[in-house]
Amino acid sequence: MLLENMAMAFSAIRVNKMRSILTMLGIVIGIGSVISIVSIGDTMRSLFADIYKDVGLTQGYVQVMSWEVDDWRQSDMFTLDEMEQVKEVFGPEIAYIDSSAGTSGEAVFGRNRVNFDYSGIDWNYQDVQPVTVVYGRYLNEGDILGRKCSAVMDVDSAMKLFGTENAVGKEFRTALNGEVLDFTVVGVYRKEMSPFQQLMMGNTGDRGSAYIPYTLLTWPNDYFDSLHVYAADGINMEDFYNRLTAYVARMKNRTVDQIYTYTALEEMDSVDQLMGGLSVAVGGIAAISLVVGGIGIMNIMLVSVTERTREIGIRKALGARTRDVLLQFLTESAILSAMGGILGIVIGAGLVSLGAAALQVQVVIKPSVVILAVGFSALVGIFFGLYPASKAANADPIDALRYE
User: Fold this and answer.
1) Which helix H or strand E contains 231, and what residues bound it?
2) Which of 243, 230, 248, 257 is nearest to 127 (CA)?
3) I need a labelling partner for 76 at 20 to 30 A (CA). Which of 47, 124, 279, 288 fits?
4) Would the pLDDT of 367 be above 70?
5) Residue 258: is its pLDDT beyond 70?
């Protein structure tokens, strides 16, 4: 019976091709919009997750909240000895730790002057933030312990300052903490990023960036305001940072709520929830067009019922039951809506894929969303086709046969 109803439905759709296409248009636009928006949202969430993974999901910062305490004192800052204590207490749970030191200054090479951002790192920073060293070497333990004026910079920064990528051995002058120092470039690296990552990470414009020993930035008093930590993979992040916060509170003779702990994982979760909420909200607004499409289906099905009044009368006179007629028209409206849904999915997914290809990113289209979209479009057809189908099923066969 179902196959017969489907065959009759396709036959009716073929007879009125243009009307059927125009009727499906509302569903096509609605489903296409929902698929596009949800897919864009999921793709963006995936891209942001990749960015945070690249930055390091186990990364965190810990410090005394100087902006919240009334009795802030110099002992609230950390020393290198205290950082070593933290490393000893937590041992293998810490993959990396430094003083989160950073500064800016003008780098001078001959007549070239470029504003640089300097990040103070330890020799094993490469373990948690790997890059491809294309010339020279990375900072080593001797650079850190000896407080040597060694620098590692990316290829773009080397080009800006020296006019060449291979700047190993070249020297430049800059001022740190009021002291003018001569730095030697010991390595140049390259880090591959997608166009989207470059866009989101920001364009440095005319600025350069370089890694230098963090011990240079804590000199001469070796005080710094926060610990920069990477927890080891595979441990419970929440438990680890809770214990680290409690330890720092005891070390600084502060309460736990006076210690500020910020983690990349918490920020990623916040961004993911925000992106997910926006995707659902905008997708819900786009889904309103499905209601408009459903009303169009109801309108056309009412017209179809009127046009086929004699057909309905003949079927009933030949023994068709009320439910048989009801199922016939419900099947037709559901197929009409489902076809629109499939076309909408193809168009929506196609547009998103083209945009992703242009940005060189991996598009995310979840099969569950596609299945849900097709099913929902069919339900829209059934819901809005119920009244016309009921009207056809309840038609009096005598009156239907007399209809001209």
Assistant:
1) strand 227-231
2) 230
3) 124
4) yes
5) yes
